[in-house]
Structure formats: C-alpha cells, structure tokens
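Worked example 2:
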Amino acid sequence: MLRTFTNDFAELFYPSLCVVCGRRLTASTPHICLSCLCDLPQARYHERAENPMMKLYAGFPNLREAAAFLIFEKDGVARKIVHDFKYHHNKSLAEFMGRIALQAPDAAKLFRDVDFLIPVPLHPKKERQRGYNQSYHIARGIAAARRLPVRNDMLYRKIYTPTQTSKSHYDRYLNTEDVFAVKNARTCEGKHTLLVDDVITSGATSVACLCTLSAIPNMRVSIFSIAIVPQ
C-alpha cells in the first residue's frame, strides 16, 4: 500500500515519458507509447528472399539465421531507443526491447530450436565504466519471453578495444580481430545458440564473435540485434 502511494506520488511530479516522443505514458505502456510502438521502423531483413544481413557473414557454414528488429538511422527512432538503454543505464528498456522483438513477424521462425542465448560481451573494463552490458539485458528480455537460459559464462572479450564509433569499416574489423575467446566450450557442442547484440553497423564485432564460436564442434549460431544500420 505504501509503495503504491509512493509510486503514484512520484508519478504525479515525475511522470514516465516515452523515450521516443516524450509523451506521458500510461501504466499499460512502459518506456514507449502505443503510437510510437506502432511506428517502429522494423527492418524485416530476414523476410526477404535475399537477406542483406546474411551477406555480412558469408563463409560461415554454421550460421543459421541473422536478423535485426529495427533500422538504425541518424536521429531516427531506433537511435533514440538504443542510446537511452546504452548510455543512460536504462536496463529495463533493454529488456523490454528484447521482449517486444519477439512480437515481430516471423519471430517464431528466427528463434526456433535455440538452446540458449549468448550476449555479445564487453571487456570487464568497459563494463565497469558503463555499469552494465546492454546486450546481456536484451538477451534477458528475450530469454524471459522464451524461457531460455542466457549463457554469460562462455564467450568473453579478452582484449580491451577503444570505441569504434568513428572508425571506418576496415578499421572496425582490425579493431575486433582475435579479441574474443571461449570457455566451457564442451557444454555447447552440438547446440544452437542465439548471439545477441544491440546495434550492428559493419558487422565486425559479431563476425569476430562468430569466428570464435565456429571453433566449437557442431555448434550452430543465429544472430539477432535490436537495430542495424541500413545495409
């Protein structure tokens, strides 16, 4: 009772606002208002006859599916959402986006037969600086909706790399070369994992993760990102 009163009082003076348009939210629409939810710029790449994302990972026979939920453009809706959970410590928004991504058309096909989820890891130094790994919380949102385990103990970043924001595509690949490693690999042999990322720009980071995971015998990998820069 006291908690409800406190929450209602706080909402009166500090109302929850949509991270996209700034409108006041209702109790039934957390983080993003219904109007903005209906207008999210969905990528739908995996519905095309030739998925543009698959071209980023050509040459990996163990890759099963690749998809992104939203199109990421400068000053666009997806950018506002991603920047809010990535740089403003909005863990609950990251998990919310993971959950609603499962409502996208053909999501059941994308996530079929997945045994567990692996978030793209941050180096411990960067995770301490940022406070948390946004990809882990996206994975938690997906996992909660699908009742799947999140394996945060297997893929890790062994080399600290500076931010890639201002780097060219080629430099991004060089910056992520041989930076990941695996542990507990034997428990993943013959499994199908979903690699979860926040934004795919050049694909360099997810390619580096895929290279590392490909060393695990008979492991199948699918890739999912909340957003992708248009390919």
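Confidence is low (pLDDT under 50) at residues 2-13. The beta strands are 63-71, 116-119, 155-157, 180-182, 192-200, 220-228.
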